[in-house]
Amino acid sequence: MGCEKLWPGGPSFRQSEHFRLCTDSVLLADFITPGGARRGIDLGCGAGILTLLLAEKSEKLSMTGLELQAEAAEIAAANLRDNALDGRCRVICGDLRRHRELFPAGSFELVVANPPYFSTARGAMAPVEARAAARAEGACTLEELACAASWLCRSGGSLFLVYRTERMSELFGCLSVHGLEPKRLRLVSYRAEDAPKLLLLEARRDGRPGLRMEPPLILSDGQGGESTEYRRIYHR
């Protein structure tokens, strides 16, 4: 697929056939606060949108994209090259379930993920293997993600992810078991009157208990158009 600008003057991005640009990753990139982090990893980076947006967001940050699907990893690496970010960012084609073989413990200050939302026991799987890996947990369960994030994130570092609200209780419990304490939460709704379906979460490695709720993110202006904040996020 061709390479296009995400917004005027912004980074360019080419999509994978099965790992397309999605709103969830863009919302997560806006929610993430890199702070002074210098080493970050995107678990299951797909075509590299989070890796790219975070590297653009902080010039101090060196990002590693870890992706199981070779085709997507190649496109993610091309996206970094297209934006002259391959000098401080890289893509590794590998399995996050083998994290102990790939990286020493505590290698990163920032861990991010837009993981598969659906258990393979719930609902139909996508018909194409690569698309199924992005949507359902066949290649990465919530437990496996939490285990990898806990190993990779140094004490005091942060995990940021986007997830479905219907699995919030499961998510919080799994992260806490692995020493990742939920610290900051934002719920996402299409309209103000709609129940939220997505959540944006920051969890701290070895953090103390205490969760801060942020104002909800509303995507629509209530009249069928985009909300002011949604337009800000997309630089419109």
What this model shows, in words?
With 236 residues, the chain is of the alpha/beta class. The protein has a single domain, classed as Vaccinia Virus protein VP39 (Rossmann fold), CATH 3.40.50.150. It is 29% helix and 25% strand. Strands 3, 4, 5, 6, 7, 8, 9, 10 and 11 form a nine-stranded mixed beta sheet that branches. It has a two-stranded antiparallel sheet with strand order 1-2. Helix 1 packs parallel to helix 2. The longest helix has 13 residues, at 70-82. It is globular, with a radius of gyration of 17 Å. The two termini are 23 Å apart.
**Main beta sheet:** 9 strands, mixed
Task: Say how many strands there are.
Answer: 11
* CATH-assigned homologous superfamily: Vaccinia Virus protein VP39
Which CATH architecture?
3-Layer(aba) Sandwich
Low confidence ranges: 130-136
Alpha carbon gap, first and last residue = 23 Å
Number of helices: 8
Radius of gyration: 17 Å
- CATH-derived topology: Rossmann fold
The geometry reads as globular
What is the overall pLDDT average? 91
Structural class estimated from helices and strands? alpha/beta
Summarize the structure.
The chain has 236 residues and is α/β, with parallel strands linked by helices.
Descriptive key words:
about 240 residues; alpha/beta; Rossmann fold; 9-stranded mixed beta sheet; 8 helices
